[in-house]
Design brief:
By secondary structure, the chain is of the alpha/beta class. Helices cover about 55% and strands about 15% of the residues. The protein folds into two domains: about 120 residues, Rossmann fold (3-Layer(aba) Sandwich); about 70 residues, Arc Repressor Mutant, subunit A. The chain has a six-stranded parallel beta sheet, with helices on both faces. The C terminus is likely disordered.
């Protein structure tokens, strides 16, 4: 993968670049602040931006959205020293495809990173669980139990698209080549079958349970 490292600590950038190159990745650029990360993304259009430099937290969402605006195909993975559920929720809500801690060993880090290349999320099981819990607190608790086995293939397609950041009915309809009314019908069925209240909670559940394309078997 072509990767942009965005971090304000030169020593960490150097170590991460060596790790990534040892695992066959191409580090195309390095940024030292949020604005530079967005500008370099616009210049190089990397496959992934590893983002760890945004303070205050609100800059995580601003920078993630800025990167998406400049290069919609680029995946943002937020790096952190100390996982925080609020930051996790904001990052994923802004469109980040992963959230990894610096305490991971190199091989595990690269293994999780490779999931993005296959279309899945870069999340440890612990952070995925935290994401679901955070959505439950924010969006409301599930009514009873979740049962994904009843989802049809088309409903999984819709859920997969939402988990990849395509959330509006218009975009979903265009992507799946159906009408917006059909999308509304599928989304309603997804929420009913998963016993959830909102699309955000359904996306969190899909990410944590590996029921979307690219997440299975990761």
């Amino acid at each position: 993968m072509r990767i942009l490292i965005a971090d304000d600590q030169p020593l960490f950038r150097d170590a991460l670049r060596v790790l990534l190159e040892d695992h066959g990745h191409d580090v195309v650029a390095e940024a030292t602040d949020c604005s530079e990360a967005v500008a370099l993304t616009a210049e190089f259009h990397p496959d992934v931006v590893l983002l760890d430099l945004c303070d205050p937290v609100s800059n995580v969402t601003t920078t993630t959205r800025g990167i998406a605006s400049e290069s919609p195909e680029t995946a943002v993975i937020v790096l952190t020293d100390h996982p925080d559920e609020d930051v996790l929720l904001q990052a994923i809500g802004a469109g980040a495809k992963g959230y990894l801690t610096k305490e991971l060993d190199g091989n595990h880090f690269c293994e999780l990173l490779s999931r993005v290349e296959r279309g899945g999320p870069a999340l440890t099981p612990q952070l995925a669980s935290s994401l679901l819990q955070a959505f439950v607190r924010t969006e409301g608790a599930p009514r009873e139990t979740h049962d994904p086995s009843g989802l049809t293939g088309r409903e999984r397609d819709v859920l997969d698209a939402m988990a990849r950041g395509i959330t509006s009915n218009r975009e979903l309809a265009a992507t799946l080549q159906v009408s917006e009314n059909t999308i509304r019908f599928h989304v309603r069925n997804i929420l009913d079958k998963l016993n959830l209240h909102t699309r955000a909670a359904a996306i969190a559940f899909a990410l944590t349970h590996g029921i979307i394309a690219g997440a299975n078997g990761s």
